[in-house]
């Protein structure tokens, strides 16, 4: 009985620690996202991330890229991004690439493509100061 | 009575000789060696007659009788042989006939399957390269065939509404159904990509002429615009600007996806690199490569997403009338590609 209470308390404090780490990383992610006009969270080996980078460069935009696999807190940042995107727990698909424009979340490749085709991406970039004329 | 006993053996010897010529009927040779007891019974009558002849002529008559009996026996044997040969031939004909029917059925099946892919002679997915049948892909092949037929019907409906100058309300309904039909295709392709992305990327499910223009498992969005835009005059200034922007953004998106895919291909090559020292971990290499195939699925999905968005946005820029004309042109274009494909497949083959 004594042990059960202890293990429950231990589990709870672990959970709280994890939560606060995530909160930290969530804060960090949002902070990083507002530091530049266009921010891409990426993984260096991910080819869809490469496509995202090429898309913005092709438009004449210079995005700030954060490679999660090169960041010590990368895993937690990835979890924070997952929560921001509202992905289901079961999604095995990669979280990255995730794009922020003007500090606000835009989303993954399919949202960015939809915005671009419908002509709303360019005004958003201009508004954030990433594009001139 | 002595003569009766000897004659059958003599005749057997002769039968044996005459049957060696016919190689194809070796199976019949053995029954032939069995003595035909009916011959014995028949030959019994003849000696009885000859015995009634007077003693002086008996030798010559006996010789004649022997000759005659030999001839008759040979005739009987020849007739028997011929009957058995005929039987064998008929049996062969019947088995060939059933084989022919089977082959015809198989060809019919193969033709039906390849029809779904719009070509007359292309090998079907089942039984060509794969060793196991993928039910997801089988379902896709069947559904795609049905999709193409339905596409034809909807295009005809659109043409009819257009030519009869149906009111915009009605035209819009048909336009929406055509756009929905394209959405159905993208949904089917997403399922197929989950089942086997390499199959989808190979484009083997498309008519061979369509495959020339293949880009990440389908048509280039910019290509779709190239087909539609010339049909749309006259355009307002606002529309012209909108279309130019759409062409630019779809091109940029295409380039981005192409570059991403290229990077994936390069990393696959890198993964598959053969270590000259031969130390490399084969199993690990294979596992890494298979992970990359999952990434391929992502690219196919994004490419289809791009196609869909391009079509939808295009229809938003245009008036009802223009949208109808554009979609009609698109449907007609693919129909002609498939027709071209059938003509190409059925051209007479040149003898080397």
UniProtKB/TrEMBL annotation, chain A:
Compartments reported by the entry: Cytoplasm
Limits of the Glutaredoxin domain: 38-106
InterPro entries registered for this protein in UniProt: GlrX-like_pln_2 (IPR011905), Glutaredoxin (IPR002109), Thioredoxin-like_sf (IPR036249)
Family annotation (PROSITE patterns): GLUTAREDOXIN_2 (PS51354)
A Pfam family hit: Glutaredoxin
CDD domains associated with the record: GRX_GRXh_1_2_like
Record keywords: Cytoplasm, Redox-active center
Main location group: cytoplasm
Ribosomal protein recorded as keyword: no
Similarity comment text for this entry: Belongs to the glutaredoxin family. CC-type subfamily.
Protein name: Glutaredoxin domain-containing protein
Species of provenance: Sphenostylis stenocarpa
TrEMBL record, chain B:
Main location: nucleus
Ranges for domain DOG1: 137-347
Localization per Swiss-Prot or TrEMBL: Nucleus
Cell division listed as a keyword: no
GO annotation terms (biological process): DNA-templated transcription
InterPro entries for this protein: bZIP, bZIP_sf, TGA_domain
Keyword check for Iron-sulfur: no
Keywords: Activator, Coiled coil, DNA-binding, Nucleus, Transcription, Transcription regulation
GO molecular function: DNA-binding transcription factor activity; transcription cis-regulatory region binding
Residue ranges the record marks as coiled coil: 86-113
Superkingdom as given in the UniProt entry: Eukaryota
GO cellular component: nucleus
Residue ranges of domain BZIP in the record: 65-100
Family: Belongs to the bZIP family.
Protein name: Transcription factor TGA3
Lineage of the organism: Eukaryota, Viridiplantae, Streptophyta, Embryophyta, Tracheophyta
């Amino acid at each position: 009985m004594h042990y059960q209470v202890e293990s429950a308390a231990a589990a709870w404090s672990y959970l709280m620690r994890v939560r606060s780490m995530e909160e930290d990383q969530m804060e960090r992610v949002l902070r990083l996202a507002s530091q530049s006009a266009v921010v891409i969270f990426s993984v260096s080996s991910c080819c869809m991330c490469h496509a995202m980078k090429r898309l913005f460069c092709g438009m004449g935009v210079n995005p700030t890229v954060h490679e999660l696999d090169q960041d010590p807190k990368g895993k937690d940042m990835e979890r924070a991004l997952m929560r921001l995107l509202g992905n289901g727990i079961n999604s095995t698909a990669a979280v990255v690439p995730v794009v922020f424009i003007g500090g606000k979340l835009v989303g993954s490749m399919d949202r960015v493509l939809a915005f671009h085709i419908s002509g709303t991406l360019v005004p958003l970039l201009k508004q954030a100061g990433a594009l001139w004329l | 009575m002595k003569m009766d006993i000897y004659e059958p053996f003599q005749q057997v010897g002769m039968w044996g000789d005459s049957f060696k010529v016919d190689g194809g009927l070796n199976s019949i040779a053995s029954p032939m060696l069995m003595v035909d007891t009916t011959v014995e019974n028949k030959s019994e009558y003849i000696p009885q007659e000859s015995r009634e002849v007077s003693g002086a002529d008996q030798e010559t008559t006996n010789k004649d009788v022997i000759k005659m009996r030999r001839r008759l026996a040979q005739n009987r044997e020849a007739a028997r042989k011929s009957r058995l040969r005929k039987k064998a031939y008929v049996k062969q004909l019947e088995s060939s006939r059933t084989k022919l029917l089977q082959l015809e059925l198989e060809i019919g099946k193969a033709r039906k399957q390849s029809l779904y892919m719009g070509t007359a002679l292309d090998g079907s997915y089942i039984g060509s390269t794969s060793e196991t049948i993928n039910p997801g892909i089988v379902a896709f092949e069947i559904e795609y065939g049905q999709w193409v037929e339905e596409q034809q019907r909807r295009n005809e409906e659109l043409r009819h509404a257009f030519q009869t100058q149906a009111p915009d309300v009605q035209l819009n309904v048909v336009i929406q159904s055509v756009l929905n039909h394209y959405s159905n295709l993208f949904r089917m392709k997403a399922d197929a990509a989950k089942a086997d992305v390499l199959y989808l990327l190979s484009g083997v499910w498309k008519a061979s002429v369509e495959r020339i223009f293949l880009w990440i498992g389908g048509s280039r969005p910019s290509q779709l615009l190239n087909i539609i835009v010339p049909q749309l005059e006259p355009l307002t200034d606002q529309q012209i600007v909108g279309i130019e922007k759409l062409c630019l953004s779809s091109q940029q998106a295409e380039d981005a996806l192409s570059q991403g895919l290229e990077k994936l291909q390069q990393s696959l090559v890198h993964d598959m690199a053969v270590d000259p020292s031969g130390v490399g971990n084969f199993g690990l290499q294979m596992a890494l490569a298979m992970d990359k195939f999952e990434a391929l699925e992502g690219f196919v999905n994004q490419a289809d997403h791009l196609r869909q968005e391009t079509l939808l946005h295009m229809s938003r820029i245009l008036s009802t009338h223009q949208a109808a004309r554009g979609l009609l042109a698109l449907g007609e274009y693919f129909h002609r590609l498939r027709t071209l494909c059938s003509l190409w497949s059925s051209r007479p083959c040149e003898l080397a």
